Amino acid sequence: MPGRDADFADFSDDLSTLLDVLGIERTVIAGFSRGAYLATEFYKNHPDQVAAIILEDGGSVAFATTFFKLPPDQLATFFESVRIPDEIKSRYFDVYDSEFEVYSNFYDKKTGGSQFHNFGFIRQVKDKWIGYGGLMEYMHMQDGSHYAKLLFQPQSVSRYAASIVLQQPLAIYETLHVPMLILDAVGTPDLFQNSAENRELASRFPHLISYRAFDCADHNIHFGCPEEFLQAIRHFLHSLVLRSEEPS
């Protein structure tokens, strides 16, 4: 976790600086879930560095929209359900004696291989090691009461946690000027039921926004249906090439 309370704008500024250092003038910015909101923040703050945007189940609709549409009893049921199952908690969120123990917990035996990327999730804390330890607290989503405070009193939580709730994608994309691909997971149960809002946004910019709904996943499309996901990405990137070849 960062040593200070960095918000989404701080992360977007960091990415902007990285692109400058690498000599990349414009890029296709993409993100999944919370990462999609970070992509939207990057476009908000550094639009001239964005060539196109890919949003996978997030970043296109205000985060709280799904929850504010729920009847009070269903919202209360949701808050009561917010907890990390003991098995998941012990596997991914506990504190461990060795780096290898964390790596083993993250290792997917079905996939095989080195899975070297798992080390990117591992952190040392004094003489111990953690994977996702502290993540839910950092996002202020560790239980129902904290989740409710995040949604209804975002000004009272950390800047980072509040960033996802305070962001207003529709206002940000009122001045959209680059191609966008929205990948919307609509499988059962749909974790974020925003297909109507996504379709409405796409209808505002039919010449810029491509919308794809996937009923093979309820949130994580690239994991639930990887082939369909890659096909959509390839098609969108190919369309960007064709656009660049059109006479101005």
UniProtKB/TrEMBL annotation:
<feature type="domain" description="AB hydrolase-1">
    <location>
        <begin position="8"/>
        <end position="80"/>
    </location>
</feature>
<protein>
    <submittedName>
        <fullName>Pimeloyl-ACP methyl ester carboxylesterase</fullName>
    </submittedName>
</protein>
<dbReference type="GO" id="GO:0016020">
    <property type="term" value="C:membrane"/>
</dbReference>
<dbReference type="GO" id="GO:0046464">
    <property type="term" value="P:acylglycerol catabolic process"/>
</dbReference>
<dbReference type="InterPro" id="IPR029058">
    <property type="entry name" value="AB_hydrolase_fold"/>
</dbReference>
<dbReference type="InterPro" id="IPR050266">
    <property type="entry name" value="AB_hydrolase_sf"/>
</dbReference>
<dbReference type="GO" id="GO:0047372">
    <property type="term" value="F:monoacylglycerol lipase activity"/>
</dbReference>
<dbReference type="InterPro" id="IPR000073">
    <property type="entry name" value="AB_hydrolase_1"/>
</dbReference>
<dbReference type="Pfam" id="PF00561">
    <property type="entry name" value="Abhydrolase_1"/>
</dbReference>
